[in-house]
Amino acid sequence: MKLSVIVPVYNVEKFLPRCLDSLLRQGMEVGEWEVICVNDGSPDNCAAILAEYEKKYPDIFKVITQENQGLGGARNTGTAMAQGEYVTYLDSDDYIIDNAYPYLLEHFCQDKPDVLCYGHTHIYTDGKALFDPQAKPDGEITFDGDGVDAYNRWPLPFVWSKFYKCSFIEEHQIMSQIFSSQDEIFNFDVFRMNPHTRIVSSNVCRYELGNEQSIQRTTDKQKALKTMHAMFTNIDYMRDRMDAETMKMEAGTNRAINNMLNVYHKKLVMVLISRKDWESFRLKMQSTPPFEPVPTSATLSARWLGKMKKWTGQSYLFYLLFYFVRTFLFFKLIRPVMLRKKQ
Question: Is 0.70 surpassed by the pTM of this model?
Answer without folding.
Answer: yes
